[in-house]
Amino acid sequence: MKYLPLKEITEDMFLAHAVIGNDGRVLLNKGTRLTPAYLHRLARMEYTHLYVYESPAEDWDCTGPLSDKIRVEAIRVLRESLIRVVEHKPLNEPLISFVIEGLLKDVLQQEDRVFDIIDVKTPDNYLYNHSLNVAVISVLMGRQLKLNREELKEIALGAFLHDLGKAYIKTAIKKLQALSATDTVQIKQHTIRGFETIRASFSLKVANIAYQHHEREDGSGYPLGLIGVDIPLASKIVGVADSFDAMVSNRTYKVRLWNDQALKELTAESPAKYNPAVVRALREAVALYPVGSVVQLTGGEQRVVVAVSTTKMVLQNPKQLSDLLELPVTEFSRIAKRVL
Ligand SMILES: [Fe+2]
């Protein structure tokens, strides 16, 4: 398995994950041979990278902690919620709650699970996949911080809906290009609009997450410029998860970072912008080198990461796929650097 730029994918490779449309339909199934016609179609959908298998017999998982079933359902529910917001209709609280229960079940199923995948978003599906990733990462962080089931559910709901207010802002759900000053003022409004919409159907705690996810420890955030002691833990968690997922995403207006670079940057901005305990929880919740990464061992040998958890990492020899090396988390120092 490899994570490759589209231009390096050849027609003897196979898709390692399903491609899901914004309406929640599966457009291409896992295991599909990537013919020139499919690659052309994916390029038109603005995919820049994909996970691929070099042999149809490979079965490494690159769907992350969420099953395709829940991902598809959640995208449908989020899309429907955004339409309701635009039409000034109340949110469907039971439906959102139901899909979040499914998400929690998936994410918390395995004790040693981490957020182990690299972004495959496109400008078109950015908001959907970003909202879902932030929910998954936030729940994993909350678990590291020993929060209880009820608190994890509030965090998952708040994270899933954190950018709902963007439905009011035309520029935000179109392709994100360099923003003008007026656009920036409008974008900042999404926290307030999101709060108002969510509060009508959910608890104050859940709505506050959307309201406060851009607040920062030193008071430099928005909309209120709250300082650390006044920001609830749930909002700090979602704020860190949101920044992380934005940093590692392929967006047209910013250079994308890899997980290790983003973690380094967030650590450098702590404690000024981000709470140190919350950043530590992020480091434990996401893979430093997610599956599909190519790393170089201290001896100089290159390996592909094919599985990763809180305790271990499995590294594949790219020249001989059956040659696997299992590295306990205590031996991560054997990795000299990330190559790709
Ligand atoms: Fe936001």
TrEMBL record:
Alphabetized PROSITE patterns for the sequence:
HD, HD_GYP
Gene3D superfamilies (UniProt xref): Hypothetical protein af1432
Protein name listed in UniProt:
HD-GYP domain-containing protein
Concerning Pfam families, the annotation shows:
HD_5
Domain named HD-GYP: residues: 105-298
- Domain of life of the native organism: Bacteria
| Boundaries of every HD domain copy | 127-247
User: What organism is listed for this UniProt entry?
Assistant: Capillibacterium thermochitinicola
